[in-house]
Amino acid sequence: MSLPGIETARRVARRYASRFFQRPIILAYHRVADLDCDPQLLSVTRRHFAEHLHVIRERSQPMRLQELALALRKGGVIPSGVVVTFDDGYADNLIHAKPILERHEVPATVFVTTGYTGEECDFWWDELDKMLLQTDVLPAVLRVSVSGRAYQWDLKGTPKANGELLNGRWSITESRDPTPRHAAYRTLHQLLRPMAEEERRLVLGELRLWACGVEALSHGEALSAAEIIKLARGGLVEVGSHSVTHPVFASLPIEAQRLEIEKSKKDLEEILGLPVCSFAYPYGGKKDYTADTLATVQKAGYLCACANFPAPVKATTDVFQLPRYLVRDWDGDEFRRRLGQWLSG
Ligand SMILES: [Zn+2]
Q1: Separation CA 238–CA 277 (nearest Å)
Q2: DSSP secondary structure letters along 124-148
């Protein structure tokens, strides 16, 4: 025989015990926007983002990145803490995400790529997407020279990616390229990603000349200096650095890495009038930075840095190589399931 009161007490005790043994995790978002075309799967819709924050409030303890970093430096971690971060510095982080974060009282850190601040141009990967996948009509042949090698695609009559003939939800994670436009987009993305900024600008300039009408598609979706100030106002959102030009650090000489790490910090501190203490490595995979990068970030005065590989935060985790779970555009139920798995790590 068991008394109902004892069963309830046991259930509550089990729930608290499991929560106590859950490890903290850091989530990586990029955009909160309802997009027709999102080949890099960077965006979460406003509705889904609100559902995610509801689940985070219900299932865990939302916390600030610097709070977690401080606990780590003291040799401990906070059970079931969840940190929300955003990479790149899209204006929709202010326009769409911040009001939802405020409504749910969930703090966040936004890592800004300072070279795009105040520029009327898009992030290079968005420009490529708009040029190749979202432009209605393109010239019949694309010929482009990259690093001394000539590439050519026959694009005659291919529809845009989110046109009626194609599924607008195509993404780079799919193995198939439905049209030569998709093949060109995938190849050029791979070629541009590790490139030095100057060389990438040259290739994009060449593409811009080739693609008519792309200017009309550019909105300048990066945060401006005024928007960065608004984002940080109120203290719920911390602004961190994501470099100046979003390079693959591992492919840069150390002096160029140092410039990216120090200049982005200085520029953001001038805009905000506040110390900038958090950094996130562009791309953030373990092969995208080196031991020298970590040392340079530490020496520049940052207190922590986020990478991009999935793992919970343990007491032994390097505070300059914090793991993060990439969040996709899942609904609340799917997010709850994944969050539960991650927290039990
Ligand atoms: Zn990034």
Answers
A1: 9
A2: HHHHHHIIIII-S---SEEEEEETT
**CA angle (321, 324, 329) in 5-degree steps:** 155
Q: Which tens digits make up the pLDDT trace of 255-286?
A: 999 999 999 999 999 999 999 999 999 999 99
CA angle, residues 276, 329, 168, in degrees to nearest 5: 120
At 6 the three-state DSSP class reads: helix
pLDDT, tens digit, 9 for 90 and up, residues 112-151: 999 999 767 789 999 898 888 888 778 888 998 888 899 9
Instruction: Output the CA 280–ligand 1 centroid distance in Å.
Output: 8
- Give the CB-side neighbour count of residue 77, counting CA atoms within 13 A: 23
Distance 142 CA to ligand 1 centre (A): 27
CA of 281 to the centre of ligand 1 (A): 7
* Residue 265 φ/ψ region, left for φ over 0, alpha for ψ in the -120 to 50 degree band, beta for the rest: alpha
Closest listed residue to residue 140, CA positions, set 219, 211, 42, 225: 211
Ligand 1 mean position, distance from CA 283 (Å): 5
Instruction: State the Rg of the chain over Cα.
Output: 22
The one-letter code for the residue type at 100 is I
